[in-house]
Each structure stands twice: as C-alpha cells, then as structure tokens.
Amino acid sequence: MSWLVQDKIYEDNKVLLKNESLFNVSNGYIGVRGNFEEGYEAGFDTIRGTYLNAFYEVEPITYGEKLYGFPDTKQKILNVIDSQTIHLYIEGEYFSLHQGEVLDFTRTLDMKEGSVTRSIHWRSPKGHEVKITIERLASFNTLELFLIRYTVEAVNFDGEIKFLSSVDGDIVNYTDETDPRTGGGHGKCYEQYDAKVVENMIQVSTTTIHSKLKATCTCHHHLNETCELNFEKHERKVTAIISTDIERSQKITLTKYNVYTDDRRHERPEEDGKELLKKVIYREFDFYLDEQIQYLKKFWKSADITIQGDEDLQQGIHYNVYQLLQSVGKDKYSNIAAKGMSGEGYEGHYFWDTEIYIFPFFLLTQPELAKKLLIYRHSILDGARNRAKEMGHERGALYPWRTINGDECSPFFPAGTAQYHINADIAYAVIQYYMITRDTEFMIHYGAEILFETARLWADIGHFHHNQFMIHSVTGPDEYTCVVDNNYYTNVMAKHNLKWAYKMYELLKDQSNHMTTIIESMELTKEEVEKWQKAYENMYLPYDKALGINPQDDTFLTKKIWEISSIPKNKFPLLLNYHPLLIYRYQICKQADTVLAHFLLEDEQGYETIEKSYHYYENITTHDSSLSFGVFSIMAAKVGEEQKAYDYFMKSARLDLDDHHGNTKHGIHTANMGGTYLGIVYGFGGLRIKEDIASLNPKKPSKWQEYAFKFIYQGRLVKVIVKENRIEILLEEGEALDIKVYEKVYTLESKLHIDLA
Amino acid sequence: MSWLVQDKIYEDNKVLLKNESLFNVSNGYIGVRGNFEEGYEAGFDTIRGTYLNAFYEVEPITYGEKLYGFPDTKQKILNVIDSQTIHLYIEGEYFSLHQGEVLDFTRTLDMKEGSVTRSIHWRSPKGHEVKITIERLASFNTLELFLIRYTVEAVNFDGEIKFLSSVDGDIVNYTDETDPRTGGGHGKCYEQYDAKVVENMIQVSTTTIHSKLKATCTCHHHLNETCELNFEKHERKVTAIISTDIERSQKITLTKYNVYTDDRRHERPEEDGKELLKKVIYREFDFYLDEQIQYLKKFWKSADITIQGDEDLQQGIHYNVYQLLQSVGKDKYSNIAAKGMSGEGYEGHYFWDTEIYIFPFFLLTQPELAKKLLIYRHSILDGARNRAKEMGHERGALYPWRTINGDECSPFFPAGTAQYHINADIAYAVIQYYMITRDTEFMIHYGAEILFETARLWADIGHFHHNQFMIHSVTGPDEYTCVVDNNYYTNVMAKHNLKWAYKMYELLKDQSNHMTTIIESMELTKEEVEKWQKAYENMYLPYDKALGINPQDDTFLTKKIWEISSIPKNKFPLLLNYHPLLIYRYQICKQADTVLAHFLLEDEQGYETIEKSYHYYENITTHDSSLSFGVFSIMAAKVGEEQKAYDYFMKSARLDLDDHHGNTKHGIHTANMGGTYLGIVYGFGGLRIKEDIASLNPKKPSKWQEYAFKFIYQGRLVKVIVKENRIEILLEEGEALDIKVYEKVYTLESKLHIDLA
User: Fold this and answer.
1) What value of ipTM does the predicted structure carry?
2) B296 and B112 in contact (C-beta within 8 Å)?
3) Within 10 Å of residue B514's Cβ, how many Cβ atoms?
4) Do B413 and A581 touch (CB under 8 A)?
5) Do A578 and B392 touch (CB under 8 A)?
6) Above 80 in pLDDT, residue A184?
7) Which of B463, B464, B473, B583 is best to mutate for the A interface (most A CBs within 10 A)?
8) pLDDT tens-digit profile of A504-547?
C-alpha cells in the first residue's frame, strides 16, 4: 500500500483543509487542490484553488518606512479559473457528503497511476442510493490538461440525474493578514473577464490588473450516454447543465476535459486552448490514465527508494518524491514553489530551497528536469544584474531571495535580500550539475555565465582585511541572526563559487564562439578572474580555537545561550512569538547553517571540526524551519550519531502526511520533501559527488531490514542496496565506472558487492 | 538687527515654503506655520498648517512582512483647525501679492517681541493703494491663544473694505510617499466636525477617527471701527464677513482672537474655549504683545548668548535659541518634536534628540522647563514597561524610539526600536538634571524610577561573557550600521545609567515613604541592585590597541572604508540613495556615535583615545544627520582643532536660516538648534557638569572679538565672557560657588577674571 495515500475523512474541517493540500493533483504547470467538486456546507473553511506555475499578479508592497532599494512590488501566484466544480442532482436532490447518509467514502492518491480518486457510497435524504467515483489527473504528458471523470451508479432507483458543471473565472486568492507566511492584502486580482461558449466548448478567460497576464480555461464535457446539454452563461462563469436518465445498476460517466493556457507560454491562449482541446477530446480518460502510468513507470525507475521494514516510512518517501515531481516546473518560466502547486503559502515564490534541498533529487534521478531548473535561473539573470545595481554593486548579479519572474519580492531585507548566499547556492547547483553530467554545452550556454556573474558579486561585496577576504552585512541560512559579518556558510559557499567561476573561465574561455561572445559582452578580463582567484584563495573562514568549531559569524559565540528546554512549547516557532531583536541576541538557530555548510562542502574542514560543530549547533537549533531536520539527519549520520540521524530523518519523512507543523493546509513543504531524499541518499547512503568521483559511505538504520536507492552519474544509472551486512551496487544503465565506497575505489562493471564484517 | 529675522520674498515658491517654517509662530502648545492669511495663487505649493503639541491621530502601520512585536499603529501630529485665513477685499478687489503691484513687502520675526509681522505696500489692479500690517503671536503666557492683528491703511482712496475671516476644520495633513522623513498615507484624519456661531464667537471642533481626540478653536473678531458683521456657516467651517468704510489715510484694524483647546488638556474643550476666549478679548493686542516682551525679557536674561564680530552668526544663535523656546512642550503631555511646532516632518514625534541635544539648553537656562521634559518621560513610563515586555524582556522599561503618547511608532526596527540607547539617553538627562539642581524631591517622585527601570532593562538585555558585561544586537546613534554588538556608545551610556541607578538607590532608598512605595511596587531588591553594580563595574567597552581608539562596535573596524570624497555629491544623504545593506557594509557614519560618547562621558577614556577616535571617525563621517556637526564642533574644540571646531559650528548655526539641508520647508531642525547652544557652551566654553563641580575650559574662535554665555548651576546664574586675553566670570544670581577653570578651582563670589598669557 506504500504507493497509495488514502483517507476516509469527509466531515472534519481541519482534516479536509489539510487534505486539500495533500491530495492536490498537479503536473508542475497546473495545480489543483483537493477540493470537493460539490463543495462543502456553509461553515466549512476551504482554500479552493487552481494554480498555474509562475502565473502571477504584481502587487505594491507597502512599508511603514520605505528605504532605498526596497522592492516596490511583489509577485504572487494566482488562484486561476476554477474548473473543479461539478454539482450532481439525483432526482432533484443535491449530492453532498454533509446531507443524507455516507455509506462509504475513500479518497485515494495512486502514485503509480498519477491520479486521485474519490469513491463514495451515498444514500440521499429521500433514499436514493448511488455509488460515485470521481477521478482526477493533471497530465504529465500534456501539461495543459486537467481531467475529471465523474461516474455515477444508481444502486436502488431509476430516475433523472443532472450535472451542473462550471468553469468559473470569479475567484480570489486566500489572504491572512496575521501570518507572514501567507499572502496579505485583498485577494482580488483580475480586471477583465470573458466567459463564453464556442462550438459547445466553454471558454473562460481572465486578465490580471497589474501584470496584465491572461489565463484561459477551455472545457469540454463528454457523457457516455445521450443527454440534454444546456449552458448557463454568466459574466464570469459558464455552467454546463447535463441531464440524462439513469436506470438501476447503470453507470453514467461524465468526462470533463479542462485545458489551461496562459499568455506567458501561449501566444494566443484562447485559440491555442481551443485547438489543444479539440485534439485531446478524441481520447478517453483511460488513455490519459495509461499515459500517466507509463510516464510514472519511467520516473520511478530512477527515482524510487525502497525501505524494507517500515511501511509508513516507505509511503512517506513515495509521497515526498511524487510531490516533487508534481511540483517541479517544466519550462523556463517556472521553478518549484515553496508549497509546490498545492497552495498559496509563501505566495508561490521560488527560494534557495530549490537549489539546496530539491535540486539534488532531480539532478540524481531526472537530470533533464534539473537542467530546466537551472535554465530558469539563467532566464532571470538580467533581472539579477539589475538588482545588483539597485543594491549598489558595480558589477555582478544578485539573485532575488524570493521571486517568480526574477524581481525581488522580499519586503523584509534582513531575512530576505540580505541572504546573499542564494547566489552561491545557485552556483553550487550549477557546479553539481556539471560534476554529474559533464554537460559542457550547458555550461557554455547557461552555467558559466551564472558562475561568472555571481562570482563578480562576491568580488564586489567582499574586501581584504589583514590579507583575508571578508564578507560583511549578509544573512546566512539561519534567520535567527540577521545581517552579520563573515557568516561561515556564506563565506565558504562564496569561496566555492569564486573557485569554480575561475576554473570554468580557464576551462571554457577558448572553447566556442558563444563563450567568447559572452565573455566579451560581460567585459570579463583575465585580471578580473585573477581577483576571483585571490579572493577564494584567501577567503576568511571563521574558526574558534577554544571550541574547535566554525562560528556562525564573527560575534556569534559571544552572545548568550538561550536554553531551548527553557522555552515554553507554545513559543515555537520563535519568530512568531518574539521580536527578531530578542532572538538575534542569542546563540540560537532556526535551522542548520554552519552544519549545512559542512554538509555541502565537507572538504573545507577536518572531520573533528565538523563533528564538534555538529554537536555545538545541535544544542542551539530549534529546527523551526522544515529545512533543518534533513540536514541534521545527514550530518548525524556522518558523525556516527545513527539514532539521531534516524530520529531527525523520521521527523522530515512524513512531515506533511502527518501535518507535523500544523500548516499543511497552506500547502506541502517541497524543500522538506527534497530533504527526505537527501537524508537517505546523502545521509544514510553517504553519497557525495566530488569533482573526480562519486563516493558512498552507506549506513543502515537498525530498524530497517534493508533499503535501496538509485542515482544517475555521468550517464550511468546506479542502484545501491544496503543490507544488514552487505552492500550491493548495480550498474543498471551505462558503461563501467569507478566508484568509491568506504574510502576505497572500486570499478563497477555491472554489479559489485561488499560484505561487511 | 540680530534680534530680527527679515525677508522680502513673496513670489518665489521655494523660498515661501521654507519661510512657512522659518516664520512659524509657536509657543510650545500652538504652532502656526507662516502661511499667508490670503493664501497663494494656484500653482504654488504650500504646507498650510496649525498644530497643537501632542495632539495626534493614530494610524495603522502596514508592513510588507510584519513580524512579532512590530508596532501595529503609529501616532502622527495633526494639522488642526485653520484660523490663519483672512481674505481682504478693497472696493471689491481681492488682495493678493500675486496681483496688482507690490510696492513694498517685508516679513519680520522679532525675537524680543515674540511676534511676526508682514508689512505690505500694495497697489491693486484698479489702482487702490493700501498699506497692510499683519501681526501674529502665539502667547507664551496664555498657551491657548493665537492672535492676529490685521491693519489696513487706505493710501489713495475712500471706499469699502471687507474681511472674510474663517475658521476651517476641513483640513488634511501633508503627505509625501517618497520621503521616509515625512508622513505617508492619506492625510484625512477627522470623522466629526462641528462648526457654529455662539454669541458672535465662531467655534469649530473636530474629532479624530482613531485616537478620538477633540480639538476646538473658538474665535472672536474685533474691529476698531463700526462695521457690518455677518457669518457664513458651512458644515466644517465658518467665515466671518466684516465690512466697513475706510477713508484716505485711515487705518482699520481687525484683531482675531483664536483660542485652541483640546481634550487631552481641557476637560470640556468647547466650554473651556468659550470661557477662556471671553476672558482674553477684554485685552487688546498690545497687551499681549507687551506680555510677550516681558516673558522674553526674562527668558533672554539667562538664555542669551552674545558673539561680537559676526552679526549673521549672532542672528543665527538668537534664532535657534528662540525656536527652542517656541518648540518646547510646557505640560506633561508634550515634549519637543523633531521639527518643533513648525511642520509635520517626522510626524511630530519625540526622539532622543530632546535629551541629548536640546535638554542641556533648558537645563542650563530654564531648569523648570527642563524638569517638565523629564516629567513627560516619567508620564510615559508605563508604556515603556509594556514595550519592554513586548520586546521579550522580563523586567524594566524600554522607551520608544519615536513617539507622541508613549507608544512606539517606529516601523523600521533596525534604525528604530533597536536604538536601545534612548533609555540611557533619558537616564543621562535625569542624572544631569540632578547634578545641576540637586532636586532630590524630583528624583524621589520621578527621576529615580526612570533610572531604576532603565537600569533593569540593561541588566536584562546584557550578559557576561568572559567576565565582561556585553550588549548585543542594538543600534547606536549612527544609523549607518544597525543591529550591532557592543556598540561603544550604548555600552558606556548603559554603564552610566546602571551606575547612577545604583547610586540613587543607595542614596534615596530610605529617604521617604514615596520612595519606599516605589521600591516595593517595583519589587526592587538589594540583590537586583547589586547586579547593576556588577554589570557597570564590568561593562565591556571595546578598545582597539593598534589604532588606539574605541571601535564603534565589535566588527566595525574589519569593514571596508568608503572614501567619502569618492561619493558623488548628489548621493548624500546616503540613506536616500543606497540600500541600507550596502551602507552597513562600510566603515561610514551618518553622525557622531563614539565621538558623541566621548563628549557625554569624557572621563571614561584617556585624552589620547578620545583624540585619536575623533580623528578616526571624522574621516568616515558624512554628517548626513543634522545632529552631527554640533558634536564634532564640541570635540574638535576639545582636541585643539579650533578651525575645525569653528567650521563645524558654523554649519550648524544657520542650518535652517540658510536652509543648508534643503528641507527646512518640512520644519526647523530643533536638535541642531540645541546643538548650536552646546557648540558654544560645551564646545568653545568647555563647560562640563560633573558630580562635584562645574568646569570651564574656554577657547575663543579667532574670528570673534568676544563672546558670552550664561548658565544656571545649583541655583546660581553665571555669566561667562570670553575675550581675547581674558576670561570674565560673573555671578549674576545666587550664592558664591567653586568653579573650575582650565583645571584650576576658583571661588566665584561676584566676579572673577583670568588673564591669559
């Protein structure tokens, strides 16, 4: 059952809200929350949502005190045209789970099929008994297509059934003024609406007020029996009224084909939508379901992780990996939002989460999708160059802390724009991509330019003090201290960035006309590149002799300690319960910061420093960010804290399924899901991708009988099975390669095994 | 002429705007900008304003991202009912300086009379020639009274003249979204208006939307000739229409008595206004003018400073001192706004400017007014206690960075709430007050409690690290580095605060029942007070051996230097042209910070450290704050840089009169005005008030023939005259006292002189 997620709740508002997120049906372009087609009764909260990745509105940001360079506007992902709604009338009685009698109710997400199904057995107040099956899918092959198949079986009656199925442009975004993690302001974002019926297709279009983006939903209904079809047209909405007769034991099936188009991707959203719809309606639901199955078969071939001995965990891992696939943008306009396509939390913005927590999964299992993610970053490079200028830098690019279209959206700079490390995070992903793929073409066309521009920024922001290269006034990953000097994470990641920019320049500078063009257009000179070299060779990395650890920043270790055990449980997360200044005053961390740096760049410090740092920071980390557990699990595994590694890992693996943070209703936590993957592959598996070789250092949690994962490395698909006393490594695709296991190099031809003592 | 400020400009919009501020008529309760009674023509900008000190509206603060403890609302001073407006018609022709011919125009502020007069000789388009004299005063004796005397002389005609004089409640505040130093949002703040005529008095009342405060203006017109009086009543405004005949060479005089009341000070603003008005109209304008003269005579007796050899400077000094008197709040509800009563800049908020830059002037010349300022701070102590709790402190009080009613109004905490030093600044003022007055009663009833609660906060925020008491994550006076660790200024001022809280506790703890009650209600124990002692005795004061200076904070000296000469002139002030993060990254100061600490607490460091620090910081200070020049002048004088001392002083002395910062239109710079006084008395005069004695160390700028100032010390009025080769010290009032001059102690009986080599 680890391939299914099931739930039988239909009356508990809190669970329903959470399940709206959990049972989202998405393909990286369209995302539809798991709202009931028929809606809920009055008194139920719902966040009814359909989203198109990177389809946004621009809104002004208001400040109590606006200083120079504060962004004037932000983008936010939009709730778009609702095509979920289908009301069913049985002999005139409205179908609702809150009326009559529910004899059975199951909602199932099938992660091999790529669909969500609701199966309902219901008796109406007047005694009409029906079995209803509602299936949904967002096609991975045709990204514009969202399908609903609605089947009704009359159990104990003959009579009339009627569907009122609508496509509705009159929708708003969810707002909550009191929670900084959701959107504020009013939810209304559209100024133009067009709703019509053309050739028996419903077509609704909406245009936003500020960004002037247009979205269209074109919809066709197909009933497997003859029926009467009428349309009720409103200004912003069209409802199809479909009536037919049903006999006892007969099944009536309505298929609703919804094609979404928008003018970021489609030159003529309405015409393109119509044309595409006309093509897709020649096939039935089963065809698309089969396509999903084939697509997912290929996906799981490299992405699957198996754990023997813990079914719940196995399910959690399948779920997380599946959601990453559902969330990932598949074109250059889009990326992975903090909440995927499952909700409006964090306003649909893209953060560093992508590169550091999620990208490795795609890189190791679906490198083509990983490449698309980097191409997105390249597509917003001009915006980042402009932002760097706004921020007063003479050259270079500064990636926005949070964005959709490339413009900075962060209104609170100490925990936003100040996180310059995003530049190095993106560079790190580019470098990792290169190490794994050796894709020189990519580097010439995209990667090198990113490395150069980010390196430039480090050269501009830093300076030499006593012959060491220092970086002041930035915020590291840990937002519980902001705007600090020489944040270890930032400095060491900048060093890596500068070093690889230098290397790539040396490697590629004479490689192609395109590279020459880029170098010339950037006015990049040998002298400038040598400054990068000087900077990374002399990068200051704070180290405290007395403690034997890397301090998080220059003054971190002189602050007071705040005993975490002394803080009341209801005061977490701290940022929602204490003024930031109070928090800044303590040695207390929201999440892994130095510890994360030790994971990403383990060769920069000796083992002892890494181990001591792990223990030091573990004591003062609240894990108030869902990004934290995964990293601590990995590093616990590294320093031999196997129980800890397991405990941290388990907190991350089912975070959304079990709603550990209580906010899954606003959407799933995609970065945490990536963290789960990292926890197994980098943590327990001990995988590291270095410049010369991939290495493994597998450890097995004692609760698991065995586990296995796969990864793609330089064209090979490698499977690793970790058993009680044996490691098996299989080369599933590609040519033989050298691989390091427990510090020893083996040549993997088709299979090798290592027996442990 | 140094007692007058005159201007002949009536057509240059920019100058008029500036002059609206310069020629404000205020008494610390009422403030009326120097707008023309008749208004300007279309196309002219104006900030037409009348203010009541501490009469405010509350407005929500909106944030792009609101974190815990960010203030929900702010107060802003309100433009209140306009009683300035008087339109004059001569034989039906409207008097305006933009029509007809202006034969003469002079506007004069007389600082001995306490009034502003416009003298106009005007020929109408049809050739009617008139001489007009308009005098205004805001009574220092009857704070509610604002008077206008409007005299018209017919030069070349007989005919009818008509006044349309209104009292208008329909006014809004000035807003400018693009400048953080002015108010934003819409300007509308009233929800209720009442305009009526009672017993031939006009009475207009307005009530604010959120703060629910009520202001009333009650107005009576008196003409020196028989006239026809009619009223035109509107919903929010009443206009008196006064017609009479005039003969060639005759003078007609209209006196407009305006009494302002508000329900912060007056239980029944309307009734109280009426009663008060009835009293004041029994006297003519000349009576009140004479009262002003007497009041000012007394004021100047202790406040005057004379400079021989520079008339412009002498005028600047008179102006600054006079404006301080006009600005200072004279009841417990009010203080001194950053722009005095002359404009809406900084929203009428009270800052630390009062205690550090302005308070010394009142303390040394008008100690009763100084005491009122401290009583205001005591009156908002409960609010400060609450704010401390909000900020997560277990005990103590945290004064708001900017406020009117005691609640924090600062929306940008790094340069607002983080400036915890405001606590020590207020404590410093209390301590200075005590040193000068030995007013034990005041300390028992007000001062000690302030010292105790502020000391508590330091004990709470700081902690011991390697046996030194440290204070993290605060912002010092220099807003070009924010949220730093161990800011020298903050630490040394906190030390002073803790030390005197300890001393006062020891001195007063058994002195009176009232003291006992306070100590008990505070649950203050010997143990807690001993913690204060331990904290101040071990206060960490950063010192850099290599440079021999006190670093501004823990990491300041490791930052890069930004050559000030390399910055384009149009990029100042930096904060309006660069993102704060960029600025934070440099060793660059907006204003005196460590240098200010060395002035306030000179005994904490040796002379050499002070001197080196002065030179170090001078190189990296932009003086983007008007608070800076005065302090640099004082310290330049101390370290023997006499030319520098003079140059800095001159930049501050006529800052508003010459509109050096180009923003006098938003109001005068009261703190800078206080700084001018400090520059002479503390800078050139070298006055210091220590616990045991007052000391002088006079230096004379070579451009001055001689200068003289006075100060009140422990009940004595002392006059100091500094001549070319001779210092004369006169005891003008009080008993003999010891005084230190050039490090030598003298006993001053009635007069002493010191001849210099």
Assistant:
1) 0.93
2) yes
3) 14
4) yes
5) yes
6) no
7) B473
8) 999 999 999 999 999 999 999 999 999 999 999 999 999 999 99
